[in-house]
Amino acid sequence: MADAFKKLCDIVAQLRAPGGCPWDAEQTNQSLLPALIEEAYEVAGAVRTKDDANFREELGDLLLLIVMQAEIAGEAGRFKIDNVIREVTEKLIRRHPHVFGESNARDSGAVVRQWEAIKREEKKSDKHYLASLPEALPALMRAQKAQKKVARVNFDWDKIEDVIAKVDEELSEMKAAIAQWHRHPADGPGRTGTSRAGSQCHEIEDEIGDLLFAVVNLARKSGIDAESALQKATDKFRARFNRLEDELTAQGKRLGDVDLAGLDEIWNRIK
Questions:
Q1: What are the residues facing 189 on neighbouring strands?
Q2: Which of 30, 100, 109, 229 has the greatest number of CB atoms lying within 10 Å of its CB?
């Protein structure tokens, strides 16, 4: 395995070297970011579809980009792939004292709490507990990660009924904000000089954000990954819309030619 990994690293270095591939040679850590993110999502997609051949291929594509990112950094004298491997190896040993040390943590809950405690000690220069919450995560995933982290320090609902009540509360507040917007069309400056339209839209945005955050919390409390749940819902919607489009085609019609009532009739029939 070590020889295979070294061969991959050598090939990437050769692609980047003079006489190698012009495209590879032009890449930077920044330019490769979109591909890195895309490949991570494609790995997730392969896992969800349980397609091992595709899963294996996508892991390879992701590994290639990781090696290339490290190669670019190495060329600039910043660090090498060896540093990456050594640091992650040391971190795994350091954060698993129940395996490599004398900790008696045995169940997964204790292990996670221990991991968080070790991580906080390592990053004690961070002023706040959520300082390490990644900015670049997709919104649903970031919300869920924040909620999981604070739950580990006892900031969590006791019962799922409390979370459902919070969702209902946020839904009511969103409805009230929208109703207020419809009752008082914003056509002039507000008290602070900003337009009422902008202020009301901002309020609605806040309430929708609070509602989404509460729904993510409900998913988490139910043991469901919010990102995966939304992916499945979108896939289900796409499949049904494809069937709707096929039905229109069979009738000799096209999307855009049929009003909402006609589309709803087909949609309700194929659900």
A1: 195
A2: 229
More confident residue, 126 or 24: 24
Tell me the pTM: 0.73
Q: Cα separations (Å) of 165 from 1, 148, 214, 218, 269?
A: 53, 19, 10, 10, 33
For the residues of 12-78, what is the DSSP string, one character each? Answer: HHHHHSTTS-HHHHH--TTTTHHHHHHHHHHHHHHHHHT-HHHHHHHHHHHHHHHHHHHHHHHHTTS
pLDDT of residue 191: 45
Contact status, residue 246 vs residue 198, Cβ threshold 8 Å: no
Residue 193: pLDDT band with limits 50, 70, 90: very low
The span from the CA of 137 to the CA of 100, in Å, is: 31
CB environment 199-212: b (16+ within 10 A), e (fewer): bbeebbeebbebbb
Answer for the pair 196, 166: CB distance below 8 angstroms, yes or no: no
Reference 57, options 72, 67, 47; nearest CA is 47
Q: Considering only CA atoms, which of 133, 125, 103, 127 is closest in space to residue 115?
A: 103
Is residue 40 within 8 Å of 46, Cβ to Cβ? Answer: no
Is 113 in a helix, a strand, or coil? helix
37-58 tens-digit pLDDT: 999 999 999 998 999 999 999 9
